[in-house]
Amino acid sequence: MPFETTGWTRAHWETAADDLLLAVRPWASPRNGLISLPGARPSWSGPRSDGLEGYARTFLLAALRVAGAHGQDPHGHLPHYAEGLAAGTENPVPTGELSGHAPDAWPLMADVRQAVVESASVAIGLRLTRPWLWDTLDDRTRARVVDWLLPALAPSPVDNNWWLFGLTVAGFLQDAGIETDRARHTIDRALDRIEQWWLGDGWYSDGPNRAFDHYNAWALHFYPVLHAHLAGDKALLDHYGPRLRRHLDDYTRLFDANGAPMPYGRSLTYRFAAAAAPWLGAMTGHTPLTPGATRRLASGTLRHFLDRGARDERGLLTLGWYGPYPPAVQSYSGPASPYWASKGFLGLLLPAGHPVWTDPEEPLPAETEDAVTTLGPPTMLIQSTAADGLVRLHNHGSNPVHPQEEDPGYARFAYSTRTGPTVETADNHFALLVDGVPTRRGPAEPRGHGPGWAASVHTPCPGVRVLSATLAHGRAEVRAHLVVGAPPGTPVRQTGWATDGTVTGQLHPVHGYAIASESGTGPTLAADRSRTHILEGRTGPAESLFVALASVTAEPDPAPVATLADVQITGRTIRVTWPGNVTRRLTLDPRTSDVLPEVQQQ
Predict the structure, then answer these.
(1) How does pLDDT run across 487-497, given as a tens digit for each residue?
(2) Longest CA pairwise span in the chain (Å)
(3) Would you tell me the crossing angle of helices 222-231 and 163-175 to the nearest 10 degrees?
(4) DSSP 424-470
């Protein structure tokens, strides 16, 4: 597709930041300690905690706006937050509920653990605006703020990226010369903990699990690298900066040419927070992108959401993706949660003369050439096509935070920047039908990966295993599933891409399927309604192999996907010949659940 610039400058970003900040002011408490935004329901932490969240996350945006302008504050953002800081910490309360206490009081971390999360945004805001806010406070107010922050230096109550909230608070206290020994210990302990989750090639797991999602970029890389940068700690930056760069090699390929990040994983309502890590790479010099491509990515992402209804008629960010969309919202999220998107404004810290603001915009990786990128640690594939700028993600190794659940954000075999996932009939899913009810995918265990392919195994029900593999090339995908242990005659179902008419989904039976149909699949975060193709078959007396070709594309009048690959099945071996006479051969072993590759290129 032709390369199109966003045309956005630094002035556009400043205006967007000011608009977001001015829109929340009417919802502040009498002394600005809480910003309690309207919403259909509070988070599980309660409305007072949600009000703190509104303060902390918008304060982060105000800090980036003012610090990036070297203290210039034409809309008077900081005085509001300085007053709220004093009021919120004057007499903190042990509850997330609003009734019975001062209307501005913040909840204590010991009683409302969500306050630990918000302390990190408060700390970054104070660190960035120290000359214009912290240094102007009286000693009593500073002491109360420190008393409120100090509990964040305790061990994390949640064993995942939450360890980095304490690190972030400690970084501010260390800079301010407060409790420096304890702060240093907190930083070291947090870094030691996440080191146990480092898997190489740019990827952490988000805790002792296999949860891979946007938290790699906007938390696990973001906080250590930003701390090292703000602290001027060259040793830390030399350690964590190259990791960020390696992650960005993959991560920047997850952005569509139209600016959309991949709608995959949890906390999708943070939207343009997805631009934070690319900005941080440019800020620290640890990025594979040129300055012009960095601005193109970030500006495209911000504009993508602002142009598609992410703000309501009052200018407030909604809980959803474009407009409100409850299925994409976690129970820990409240009305102000979307303002973690403030991280996406990190680029405002770069001066107006920096090349990211002055160089011409350049194309994103998705626009330059067709590519299939294999991600080793997560066992995923990123598939992009230059003709339409569309990006797909094939998942064979990332699992939800709670593996007992089938979360649509993790359990699908494939995601794209312009489709689903669905909530009703599951898109991009393979299931056995037990008493007419589709089985869940369950936690996916990686079973191998290589150039252009990835594989996994899952147990949909006791005694049954499904060994799955995806091979990708251009816009085409081969989807293979070997079912082992199912009673003969068990129905199976493969669904395709849930499309809304703006893109074309295709699903072609190759082996094992007998029935093809199409069905409505309900709303998605991208559309009010969608449809998907469906293939159905039945298991045989032994292990049974099911193979299909699939595609999603924004190309006009696309050729049938069956013309894009020659697929030959011999026993449990799949031989695929792509255009250009490139051959991939995989054997699915029913005994070991291994996928054995043989790659031939001619």
Answers:
(1) 999 999 999 99
(2) 79
(3) 10
(4) SSPSS-EEEEETTEEPP--SPEEEEEETTEEEEEEEEETTEEEEEEE
